[in-house]
Structure formats: structure tokens, C-alpha cells
Amino acid sequence: MPITLAQLMDRLQGLLVAADSADLASLQGKFGEFMQYSIEHYEQLDEEAKSYIDNVFKALQKEARTIADKLPEGPEKRHTLRQLSLAGGGHFQADNLISILDSPTQVLLPILAAARQAFAQLLQRTLDVLFDATRHTHEGVANFAKIGLCYWAIDELLAASHLAQRAFTNQSYAHIRTDYEILDLIELFHRQPEWAELWVMRNDKEVWSKLRPSAVRKKLGAPKVDSMYSFLSEHGSHGTFRGLQARSLQVVPQADEGRKGFKIWVGGSPFVHHIVWTNSLCVYTALQLLVKSAHIFAPYLNPEEMKGVLETSGEILGQFFRTHYVKWAKDAGLSYEPVLEFLNNAPWKKS
């Protein structure tokens, strides 16, 4: 049963009765006990009781801020203001930020659980492919590179998904971008193994000149500029204004202020479209890695099994996007037709 405001007031009255009314310190101590109890049982309070405690906190913070502002400039004033801001949510505690990545996601969007499930299914299939492929003996730099890069791509996807599930969208985009680079390198070393020989050389300048992402795409016959790669770069790896926009918001100024304000998020971004996009891209990229792995290691796999694996994996992707992404896009008023067209073409069946 929730704790009502009446019950909370009865508790406060009982504490104050037990205090020495002539002793200010005794009264302050009992009120402190009341506030500590309210904090510890906040989630058990009913809405009326929560509203009361919220208002008490606001009043106390306002009074404390008034007192702190009158303190002379110095370490004590700075420390007091920081502590007050921590209590009011205007400052950050490092341990709390770190715990966001340690803890289960607090983002309450239905698409996240569906994305995690689809992602895990597709990733496991890639791990199975790599298990079968690595039971055999491989020779040459190119084969070493392809195997190593596939496992590297898995780690990038794990990091991207973990971050996306917790709304660290800029960081998730950056890891997904690395996967795009890795997938292109794997394909290049598969088609033209001689480039792997250069790749392992210590001449970093030449390697970058000939194997930078745009150069690799050109060697593969793909357009020099890839729109998805550019999007991931802008929102993830590069410190662009567009990337900052994905984690900040202009605040409408108060009538009496007339100044523009900005809110910048730390510890994850609240923008739903970026949360949905990063989680959906993790699912899609997981399928890309599976298709790529099945293609380059085909001689070591069972063809009949792989045909079924790729078809059912495409169905996993299709079900996720049709059931969750398309529904979200419709509700958000965003275009979803290109996604449906892609799913209907089922390119994984042609790989």
C-alpha cells in the first residue's frame, strides 16, 4: 500500500512531539530524520505525498541557494553551490554516470527489448559461422586479417548495442561506423588479398593513403561517398555540430530574461529517434556481418545449413523492422517506405 500524505504528516508530528521544543538542534534533527525517511521511501509515497516532499525540497533548496549566494567567494562557497546543484539535478556525480553503463537500461521503449532479442539471435549465428570457419587451418595474411576483423566487428557491435540500449547514441553511431569500415576491408581482402599485405606493413602513411575508407570503397567499385557512412561520421566519430545537436536542445528564454539557453545531456541522450535508429542499425549491421561472414567463409560451411540460416535471419530482421521500426516511424510521421522496399527485395537471399 502506498504511503499517503496523511500518514507522512502523522510521522512528522510524532517526531516533532518527541523533540525538545526548546532546543532548535533537537527540532532540526527530528526534521532531518523525517526528510531521510521520505527520501528512502519516496517510491512508496502516493502522488499527493510525493508532491508535498518535492515542494519541501524545492523550498529548502531555494533557501539554501539564497544563503550560499551570500557567502564570500572562495572554496566553501563553490563546494556548497556544487552540493546544492547535485541535490537539484543541476550537477553530475561521476559514480552515477558510470553506473548507467553498469546497470540495466532505464530507457522504457518497447522497441529496445525487441532490438536486443533480434540482435542477439543474429550475433549468435555469426559466432556459429566463425566457429565452423576457425575449425580449419588457414594460411596467409589475408585469411588472418579476415578472421581477426570479423571478431573485431563483433566487439564493435557489442559496444554499439550496449551503448544504444542506454541512449548513448553518439557513441553507438561511432562503433557502428567502425563496423562499416571493417566490413569493407574484409570484402577487399577477400577479393584482392594482396591489399592485406600492405595493410600489415608499418608504413602508416601509405596504408592510410591507399586503404582509407573512401579508397577501399573505390577499390570495391562502390561510390566514394557513402551516405550512411557520412551520417555515422557526423553523428558519431567526428565532433560536428550535427552530432552536438543530437545531444542538446535550445531552451525557450523566459519573458523576463530575453536570452537564449541550451540544455546539453550527459549520460545519454533523450531523443527517441536517435535511440530507435541506433538500436535498429545494430540489428541491421549484425545481419550484414553474418551475410559477409557466410560469404567469405563459404568453403568451410555447410551450404544447405547456411541457406536456411540466411533466410531465417532475414526473417528475423524483417519481423523486427516491420513490427517495431515501421510502426514507430508511422507514429512519428517519418518515411518508412524505403525500409519496406528493402525488406521486400530481401537482398540477403541473393548473397
Walk me through what this model shows.
25% of the residues are buried. The protein has a two-stranded antiparallel sheet. It is 71% helix and 2% strand. Helix 6 runs parallel beside helix 14. The longest helix is centred in the C-terminal third of the chain and has 30 residues, at 303-332. It is mainly α and 351 residues long. It has helices at residues 5-18, 24-40, 47-69, 75-88, 94-102, 110-133, 141-165, 169-191, 194-199, 204-211, 213-219, 227-237, 241-245, 272-296, 303-332, 337-345, and strands at 248-251, 261-264. It has 16 helices and 2 strands. The chain folds into 2 domains: 5-91, no CATH class; 110-350, no CATH class.
Short description:
It is built from 16 helices and two strands. By secondary structure, it is mainly α.
Strand and helix layout:
Blueprint lengths: L4 H14 L5 H17 L6 H23 L5 H14 L5 H9 L7 H24 L7 H25 L3 H23 L2 H6 L4 H8 L1 H7 L7 H11 L3 H5 L2 E4 L9 E4 L7 H25 L6 H30 L4 H9 L6
Antiparallel strand pairs: 1-2
Going across the biggest sheet, name each strand in turn: 1-2
Shape: elongated
Q: How much helix is in the residues?
A: over 70%
Helix count, DSSP H or I runs of 4 or more residues: 16
Q: Determine the mean pLDDT.
A: 89
H and E string = HHHHHHHHHHHHHEEHHH
How much is the radius of gyration in Å?
A: 28 Å
> How many domains make up the 3D coordinates?
2
Please report the distance between the alpha carbons of the first and last residues: 58 Å
The proportion of strand residues reads: under 5%
Structural class: mainly alpha
Biggest β-sheet description? 2 strands, antiparallel
Count of β-strands: 2
